[in-house]
Amino acid sequence: MNAPLPMLDLSAGLAQHRLEIERAMARVIATGAFIQGPDVAAFEAEMASYLGVSHCVALHSGTDALVLGLRALGVGPGDEVIVPAFSFCATAEAVSVVGATPVFVDIDPRTFNLDPAGVEARLSRHTRALLPVHLFGQGAAMDTLLELSARHGLCVLEDAAQALGGSYGPRRLGSLGHAAALSFFPSKNLGAFGDGGMLATNQPEVAELCRELREHGRKSGAPGRGREHERIGCNSRLDTLQAAVLRVKLPWLEGAVAARRTAAARYDGLLSGLPGATLPWRDPRSLHSFHQYTLRLPADRRDHVQARLLAQGIQTRVYYATPLHRLPAYGGGRSGPGLAQAEAASRSVLSLPLWPEIPASAQARVADALRQALA
Length: 375
Ligand SMILES: *Cc1c(COP(=O)(O)O)cnc(C)c1O
What we know:
With 375 residues, the protein is an alpha/beta fold. It has 12 helices and 12 strands.
């Protein structure tokens, strides 16, 4: 009854591919091509084909993909970037790391994503880019945001770290903006055996710049003369071993995300009509990847409900307890102007255990515990 039920169990998915992954890793070890081996270029090509973009650049992490993506799009000191006030800290951190200033905008309470209605009021002559996040795996309002960016001459970098496997209209999340940042952190929809990330873009010059930046600013191409360090970059390569692991897992991504959607629909059924709980809203324009299944609960009961579930061994998570503008790094306790929805979300959200192979019985147990805790 009180057996621990984790947020996420990677072992079931791993068991299905273990032999194939071990074989791929053994192949890399045998060749010794640990840095920029052939699996990296092959994985980049396979991801570009999956997303339907012309260029993918494999990087060390999703955070690096945001940082190098901003740099490759020409964002730097003195620039402002529009960021939703409710996201993982890396979204805003990347803007600060390139020397620009994140300008926080409120979210749509139904999707938890950047509210286009709030963007226009925060534009200034310093605004260079929009950085929408497809939070929990649901697409931000890209049609409105792309129209707005075109009208004001801004770049759009998608934070698609949680969105792989989702789509918006006919296109995959991560293929809609001028560039997109993906993450292969182990818990993400396509997870490596460590850190990993990628920049996806249809713009050859953005991809080329990103390739240079990931290798100390060196011009890409054949080794030897002419490969000078053109600019200050960094070391942000994806390990060949990670690329080999991800290549094995990529063909299974569609199935894994479909299984996430099935599990989410099962939660919907189990929890429908639960007093006090607001279930995830589905934006009809977006196919949700369900990186997280996130409920809203009454703000004054959320922590109590979470503690009650934990007492029964059920792990849940609050993503995110502090909106970005209230993080100590961004001024601490100060409330931002017009960020009420981000603040309300941080007090009311609760993400439930979810992974592709989660047993229906585990979901029923979560639902029962929620019913009791909210009764
Ligand atoms: C995970 C995540 C990142 C950062 O990705 P890493 O690979 O962990 O660096 C950025 N933004 C969001 C929304 C994320 O969930």
